[in-house]
Design goal:
By secondary structure, this protein is α/β, with parallel strands linked by helices. The chain contains eleven helices and eight strands. The chain has one domain: Aldolase class I (TIM Barrel, Alpha-Beta Barrel). Bound molecules: glyceraldehyde-3-phosphate.
């Protein structure tokens, strides 16, 4: 069976109730391809609100969480809390968490392990910086980031979506070419077949993220190892529907 296309909208730190109503109304209007999994990553403070207005067929994700259930961690939220308000996904290891907030591979892995243990599904992000790409280190970097996740994921690969997001393409308007993205996705799948298993490599969905728009989505989606997108800026706009429907 083929891999089901999965499109995430990562709103980042954007939106207020008015804008959220507009985005959700637009998603309701769609129409959204029923053969695509859609997940929206919303600011933590709006998780409950979004859950109360969004149709059941759209998944809701937190954009981060901490690595234990509860305790003295001011400002953090736990996977248990995310589940308690009805959301069942979390985005972890986003490059903005890694670069702005200094999250290292080990911390991302600990968060992934705990989120999975608590029953959340995880969009785990990896990707190289421009400097790393120009130094020819793209594969080295994404393999290192993925390797750190392997023990954290264990036998839960069916609850994980990998998001390959080259940092130089995020929010820059500079989308990776379909071939650049396909090459990294194929290399990742090959790495997984050698280091995890052939079954996991075949089944895991790998999203591309980085300046995806309604105009660029179709060509990217046509590549064999691109199984969906993680969309930032365009997920706040009506064109998100076109991105969801890119395989039609
Ligand atoms: O999580 C989404 C990515 O950071 C992509 O963001 P962008 O589509 O605004 O480039």
């Amino acid at each position: 069976m083929g891999r089901k296309f999965v499109v995430g909208g990562n709103w980042k730190m954007n939106g207020d109730k008015n804008q959220i109503n507009e985005i959700v109304n637009n998603l309701k209007k769609g129409p959204l391809d029923p053969n695509v999994d859609v997940v929206i990553g919303v600011p933590a403070i709006y998780l409950s609100y979004v859950k109360s207005i969004v149709p059941e067929n759209i998944g809701v994700a937190a954009q981060n969480c901490w690595k234990v259930t509860k305790g003295a961690f001011t400002g953090e939220i736990s996977p248990a809390m995310i589940k308690d308000v009805g959301a069942d996904w979390v985005i972890l290891g986003h490059s903005e968490r890694r670069t702005i907030f200094g999250e290292k591979d080990e911390l991302v892995a600990a968060k992934v392990a705990h989120a999975l243990e608590q029953g959340l599904k995880v969009i785990a992000c990896i990707g190289e910086t421009l400097e790393e790409r120009e130094a020819g280190k793209t594969e080295e970097v994404v393999f290192r980031q993925t390797k750190a996740l392997v023990p954290a994921i264990g036998s839960n690969w069916d609850k994980v979506v990998l998001a390959y997001e080259p940092v130089w393409a995020i929010g820059t308007g500079k989308t990776a070419t379909p071939q650049q993205a396909q090459d990294v996705h194929a290399a990742l799948r090959n790495w997984l077949s050698v280091n995890v298993s052939g079954d996991v490599a075949n089944a895991v969905r790998i999203q591309y993220g980085g300046s995806v728009t309604g105009a660029t989505a179709k060509e990217l989606a046509a590549r064999p190892d691109i199984d969906g997108f993680l969309v930032g800026g365009a997920s706040l706009k009506p064109e998100f529907v076109d991105i969801v429907n890119a395989t039609q």
